[in-house]
TrEMBL record:
This is histidine kinase. The chain crosses the membrane at residues 1-22. Keywords: Kinase, Membrane, Phosphoprotein, Transferase, Transmembrane, Transmembrane helix. Residues 41-259 form the Histidine kinase domain. Its EC number is 2.7.13.3. One of its GO terms (molecular function) is phosphorelay sensor kinase activity. It is an enzyme of class 2 (transferase). It comes from the Bacteria. The keyword tRNA-binding does not apply. It catalyses: ATP + protein L-histidine = ADP + protein N-phospho-L-histidine.
Length: 260
């Protein structure tokens, strides 16, 4: 009976190996598909703002001095809007390059978290206005820290973008920045749809999106929070979420003030 046992074992082992291998292949195929779709979407999306700004500039150039000031303001507004869209796309590309290379490199400099938050909130003013969102900021203590400006700005942007995306109109969003003895804490709270408890542990995974179907048809690739947590971890900081389904979310980020 030993040979029989051995054959059974062998068959089971072979079967298990094949199914693991197959599962892995399927997963890789899926990642490749998502990546291809992402790249082709982004290339397409990049073309539109570039074309629009070119047309607006061309129009202003041909009208020049005789142009009606109202008209030229319109063209300038369009250009500013499109440039804002371009910078959002750059943010997406940053995220893409992160998961391509798996590693990001930080360039530390002395930053003021309060200043970064103000910079991001004022650049998003139009988006907030469009959705009638109320955004309040509160800072206390010394909020300076060593950090990478580009990536931390992108972190704040991603969290605020989510706070807007996963809220209905007239959202209330608050940002609290606390300078503690050797840490800086940033808390971003929204009054949005919240995250069901069973998914809270997974939202920082690459490509994970809460499968709530029609609850939110917000666009996304499930990359934002994985990028955010990667940047925070690289800064030797921590991020966690507190949320109640239907009752908003609170993201807590804690960063050391000094990097070795
Ligand atoms: P994306 O927004 O592109 O789907 P993210 O990685 O930024 O990707 O977020 C992952 C998922 O976590 C989102 O799809 C959403 O389901 C959930 N989520 C993130 N932020 C919030 C928030 N502030 N409120 C409710 N759900 C959120």
């Amino acid at each position: 009976s030993i040979p029989i046992l051995f054959s059974v074992f062998l068959v089971a082992f072979t079967f298990l190996s094949f199914s693991l291998l197959y599962g892995n292949l399927l997963r890789q195929r899926r990642l490749a598909d998502i990546k291809n779709e992402f790249i082709s979407n982004i290339t397409h999306e990049l073309k539109t703002p570039i074309a629009t700004v070119s047309v607006a500039i061309e129009a202003m150039r041909s009208f020049n001095a005789s142009m009606d000031p109202q008209r030229s303001k319109e063209y300038l507004d369009i250009s500013a809007n499109e440039l804002q869209r371009l910078s959002l796309l750059v943010d997406k590309v940053l995220k893409l390059s992160m998961f391509e290379k798996k590693e990001i490199e930080l360039r530390y400099e002395l930053l003021d978290m309060k200043e970064l938050v103000d910079e991001v909130t004022s650049s998003m003013r139009l988006q907030f206005e469009k959705k009638g969102a109320q955004v309040t900021t509160h800072a206390e203590g010394d909020t300076h820290l060593d950090g990478d400006r580009l990536h931390l700005v992108s972190v704040i942007f991603n969290l605020l973008d989510n706070a807007l995306k996963y809220s209905t109109d007239h959202a209330e969003i608050s940002l609290t920045i606390k300078g503690l003895s050797n840490k800086v804490q940033l808390i971003i709270a929204d009054s949005g749809i919240g995250i069901p408890a069973e998914y809270q542990g997974r939202i920082f995974e690459k490509f994970f999106r809460v499968p709530t179907g029609n609850l939110h048809n917000a666009k996304g690739y499930g990359l934002g929070l994985s990028y955010v947590s990667h940047v925070i971890t690289k800064h030797h900081g921590t991020i966690r979420v507190e949320s109640e389904e239907g009752d908003g979310s609170k993201f807590y980020i804690t960063l050391p003030k000094h990097q070795a």
